[in-house]
Amino acid sequence: MLDLNILTQALGDLEEDQVIELLKEFAATNPSENEALEAVAACQRGMAIVGDLFENGEYFIGDLIFAGEFLTEAINVLKPSLGSGATKVMGTILLGTVQGDLHDIGKNIFKSMSEAAGYEVIDMGIDVKVEIFVTKAKEIKPQIIGMSGVLTLAIESMKETVDALKAVGVESKIIIGGNPVTKESCAYVGADAFTTNAAEGIKICQGWE
């Protein structure tokens, strides 16, 4: 029988080989969908450990990227046991780097960690024009809209985008992230929350449920 605590800790320790071996052995026992979902939840708790260690400075950006990638690999091992229901979707996040900014590392880490936490993420990429954010938000009605930017000019683009979204009645929660983002700029932009690291951003999103 799979020890969920060992699985959680192994993922938190970034022991990829151990995690995949544990899950392959588990999958070979033909587990029920509920048992497979418990294993996914254990993996997600491991991802939370990774996030905490990153916040504490013990893990770095590369560790977050690696953890997100191999968590996806871990869930793929379990997919045959998860049936058509797959994992419970926590909600939809519409994500993009705002107009005028071409940086995507932070956005991509946030995307990986959001998906690992059970969110469906619609990633529009980089240099996303205001009208694209608005059109897509009206189309899919996401619970959360995430805007990323590294350049200081991104703050103005974020404000323009938030103003445009509110003007057409979009009611999604809005979180902004990136190096230039502060409490003051969050208030200026009109977003609901801000973050400078992906792990904290996931916690904020989970708190909105």
UniProtKB/TrEMBL annotation:
Keyword line: Cobalt, Metal-binding
What is one Gene Ontology biological process annotated in the Swiss-Prot or TrEMBL record?
Answer: tetrahydrofolate metabolic process
What domain of life is recorded for the organism?
A: Bacteria
Q: Name one GO molecular function term.
A: cobalamin binding
Q: What Gene3D superfamilies does the record point to?
A: Cobalamin-binding domain, Methionine synthase domain
Q: Which InterPro entries match?
A: Cbl-bd_cap (IPR003759), Cobalamin-bd (IPR006158), Cobalamin-bd_sf (IPR036724), Met_Synthase/Corrinoid (IPR050554), Meth_synthase_dom (IPR036594)
Which residue numbers delimit the B12-binding N-terminal domain?
1-90
Locate the B12-binding domain: which residues? 90-209
Its Gene Ontology cellular component terms are:
cytosol
Against Pfam families, the record matches this protein to:
B12-binding, B12-binding_2
Tell me which PANTHER family the record gives. METHIONINE SYNTHASE
List the protein's name.
Cobalamin-binding protein
Species source reads Acetobacterium paludosum
